[in-house]
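Action item from last week, closing it out:
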Amino acid sequence: MLILGITTSTMQVGCAIGGHEGVLAQVHSSRGKRHAETLTPSIDFLRHQARIDLDEIGCVAVDLGPGLFTGLRVGIASAKAISHALRVPMVGVASLDLVAFPVRWSSRLVIAAIDARRGELFTASYRQVPGGIQRLTEYQVSTPDDLAVDLEATGDEVLLVGDGALRYRESFSDLGQVELGDQGLAYPSAASLVQLAHARALREDFVQPWDLEPLYLRRPDAEINWSTRDGLVREGSAPGPVGGAGGSGPGAGGAVDLPAPGEGTG
């Protein structure tokens, strides 16, 4: 089975194709046009370079977030459309899992940190286990300073990866036990998505397009700005509720095993 993987939750747009022979081709772009203008041409270029027709795709995998709201909508909507058109199932994987997966060999405590804008980070903690890597915490929203305090309190040797870690590197510069991942580990990898999705496909752990939902840890910026504006307009009038409830959480938490290194890559 060939899998098309799509990642759009950060500034980088990525797509990859692979299966039991491993990742056959991948394309990533983090500069230039917007996600909606970049994704479809990237997929078209990818399949032409790999000499693969769309009707050869047996599953569509997509990055669920957390991440940039507009990017998530573009990626998930496109993945669902392709899945519907080809009548194939889907697999969804969290963006933080995709950031952590390439460093599954590290013996350090792995912290994936994606830039959430507005001075915040999306984070999760991982630890190497026999045959792979395991998520230890739920997906969370944190500030760089709060994360630095938490890391110092653990006393563990830490590998901090993701674009959020690089953007706020000054917050972690005084922590001697913290090593920052390089730019090559900044964004969710479409190649990692294909690898993880293939392992799930072997177990037939699919989801139908209509059941797949993005992972939001807070409300979209536009909604928050509108609520703030609404609050300013109502100031001085009769008291009353302003805006809605906060963003939904990550759902079921706890430890989640990621596939063993190389599993399903052929």
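Closing note: Residues 66 and 216 are 6 Å apart (CA to CA).
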